[in-house]
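On clarity, I found the account of how folds are encoded harder to follow than it need be. What matters is that the chain and its backbone geometry are given together, residue for residue. For the editor and my fellow referees, an illustration may be useful. For illustration, here is how one protein appears when written out as sequence plus structure tokens:

___
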Amino acid sequence: MPDGDGLVLSDDLMSQLNEVLLERHRAEDLRRAGAGLTRTILLSGPPGVGKTMTARWLAQSLELPLLSLDLSTVVSSYLGSSGRNIKSVLDYAKSGPCVLLLDEFDAIAKRRDDDSDIGELKRIVNVILVELDRWPDTSLLIAATNHPQLLDTAVERRFDRTLVLPLPERDQRLAILTSLADGIGGAEPEKLALVADLTPETSSSDLTRLWSLSHRRSILRDSAPADELISELARGIESSGPSRDRLFLVMRDTLGMSNRQIANATGVSHPTVAAGIKRAEGAQHDGQAEQ
């Protein structure tokens, strides 16, 4: 389970999460006013964007234990047992204050008009509807899904808050990398900024794996982590093409690296770098001429 300290989300999402914390700190005020607290949250978004880390962050911030259940492993082929298994877990979680994470929520809360599913799953949806309505405000139930379009609409409506976590924007990617590199020598800010620029459509989980691999290699090779990061990024780009050419150009113009340094960092020949930079400059010039 990832630690929640490195959570990086948009300002709007963090504002909503902090509001959940504030509700808990002023729980009695809300109860006296008949307003109630956020009891259930649905987190959706592509894999690796921080849904599990968000649950961990909330649990740490509220100083509550985190219970986690992967629902895709619970569903049983034996009639009736899945519903009983899930009910027993929910009953246990309600026995004391906690944060309960139901991961892979779509595994059980699918649309009831989906004819491809057995009747057991339809019964489980009804169990979930009842439990969401009865969930106590002393605990926080968080459901996470990569496929919100599969959820039964009645289930979605039962959640007090629905938060959509998108892939991180450029500034968020830089914040993630900076947090990972904190306290590690050789992680120059300008190189981390370059990686953030060149990793669109990359999840926070993928960035973390990229950093971890690069950090290990830097230790084994006695090199700078940021250099290994850029080298790994270059190897991940198609063997040839505009993306790699642009990377070469940015490495030269932004980082001040020579063609030979770029060649050493990316594992290609010096002439390949020179040719790629020339093509990138031509493409850049053509783009400016069209504007």
User: Anything to note?
Assistant: Residues 170-290 form a domain with the Butyryl-CoA Dehydrogenase, subunit A; domain 3 fold (CATH 1.20.140). The chain has two domains: 11-164, 170-290. The two ends are 49 Å apart (CA to CA). Strands lie at 40-44, 66-70, 99-103, 140-145, 161-164.
